[in-house]
Amino acid sequence: MTDLNQVELQNLRHLIGGAETNYQKLNTYSEQAVDPQIKQVFAKSAQDALNTKQKLMTFLNN
Fold this sequence. Notes:
The protein is built from 2 helices and no strands.
């Protein structure tokens, strides 16, 4: 894999930050939800956001 240039690195950091924000918000919504189905939807979405962040982080480790 080629090295990331400054713009690509900045964009990647922005995407990682957004995924982290999404994870935090969705996790909070899941914790606060009363309806079990809504809680499950938020929990699944939070996990998806966390997985996205982790996948994006792999680009920084290469």
